[in-house]
């Protein structure tokens, strides 16, 4: 019996299609993408500059906020420039290594941001429940360790995905209907079992984002319990106000992400271009809105911005 030799060609290059179904609208879609990206960059850079140069903001809360701003810049920069290149120049080609590198930074940065939000919830818990020991508990050494832990966790948990993807032969279609690469979106084009990729992705989600949400909810439950035991109404209002900005940022980060996850898993009737637009909003909304929320709701930052932009001009 003759045995036919079958050669499997594994793709080393892929082509990101942008938003399929809306190709003729790419230029128009790029306008808000570009505008929001520039605003996000300027807002977060301004926030970092203010925290660095204003000595009164050298407190744990603002240092963690500075870390969040750095992460927001990374989160938007890993996705939006490539999307704009697709929209403007039809430059969707990307190597397999480039695709894996992009998705590594996207997923790890997302995990890092989730970790920083958890650290900020811990910061608010210490500030409200143990105000007299706040600076003693969150000293410089602890702040550095918490920051390193958040960034290391993002890198370490996502790093195995590189090897899980590199082992796969990609012999199916190499056209990716998206503006950026992501783990399962790339893995499903493999000609081998991706069960390990799926289960590891679920594991990472559970031990990072889901665990962070549970701990954040637990922290704020204890925070609210402590606040409503404060006898003074003015003190209660002040304590609630200090948490308001962080709660807004938490909701802005997690709700679109949860919605995207549910749409991808159960929204089979929703058009693909809606999936892709929502996924891009998840990458752009937090970096865009976080500095605005803190700039509006935090008096110290608002005063520092006014002094930096207007007082020095006089």
TrEMBL record:
TM ranges: 27-53, 62-88, 100-122, 142-165, 198-227, 239-262, 274-296
Start and end residues of each G-protein coupled receptors family 1 profile domain: 43-294
A Gene Ontology molecular function term of the record: olfactory receptor activity
Keyword Nucleotide-binding belongs to the record: no
Pfam family, one: 7tm_4
Keywords per UniProt: Cell membrane, G-protein coupled receptor, Membrane, Olfaction, Receptor, Sensory transduction, Transducer, Transmembrane, Transmembrane helix
Key word Glycoprotein present: no
Functional summary from the UniProt entry: Odorant receptor.
Family matches, as PANTHER family: OLFACTORY RECEPTOR 52B4, OLFACTORY RECEPTOR 56B1-RELATED
Family: Belongs to the G-protein coupled receptor 1 family.
Stated name of the protein: Olfactory receptor
Organism: Monodelphis domestica (Gray short-tailed opossum)
């Amino acid at each position: 019996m003759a045995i036919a030799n079958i050669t499997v060609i594994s793709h080393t290059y892929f082509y990101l299609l942008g938003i399929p179904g809306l190709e003729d609208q790419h230029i128009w879609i790029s306008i808000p993408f570009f505008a929001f990206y520039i605003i996000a960059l300027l807002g977060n850079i301004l926030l970092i500059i203010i925290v660095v140069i204003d000595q009164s903001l050298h407190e744990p809360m603002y240092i963690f906020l500075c870390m969040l701003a750095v992460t927001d810049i990374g989160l938007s920069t890993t996705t939006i420039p490539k999307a704009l290149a697709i929209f403007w120049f039809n430059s969707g080609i990307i190597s397999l290594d480039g695709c894996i590198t992009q998705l590594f930074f996207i997923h790890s940065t997302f995990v890092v941001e989730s970790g920083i939000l958890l650290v900020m919830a811990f910061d608010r818990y210490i500030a409200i429940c143990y105000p007299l020991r706040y600076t003693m508990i969150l000293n410089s050494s602890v702040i550095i360790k918490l920051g390193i832990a958040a960034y290391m966790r993002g890198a370490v948990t996502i790093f195995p995905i590189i090897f899980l993807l590199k082992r796969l032969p990609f012999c199916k279609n190499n056209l990716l209907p998206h503006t950026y690469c992501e783990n399962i979106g790339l893995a499903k084009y493999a000609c081998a079992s991706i069960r390990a990729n799926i289960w590891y992705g679920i594991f990472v989600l559970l031990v990072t984002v889901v665990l962070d949400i549970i701990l954040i909810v637990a922290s704020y439950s204890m925070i609210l319990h402590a606040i409503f035991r404060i006898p003074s109404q003015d003190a209660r209002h002040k304590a609630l106000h200090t948490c308001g900005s962080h709660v807004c940022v938490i909701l802005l980060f997690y709700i679109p992400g949860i919605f995207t996850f549910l749409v991808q898993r159960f929204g089979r009737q929703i058009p693909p271009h809606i999936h892709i637009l929502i996924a891009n909003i998840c990458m752009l909304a937090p970096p865009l809105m976080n500095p605005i929320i803190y700039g509006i709701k935090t008096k110290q930052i608002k005063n520092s911005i006014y002094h930096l932009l207007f007082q020095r001009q006089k």
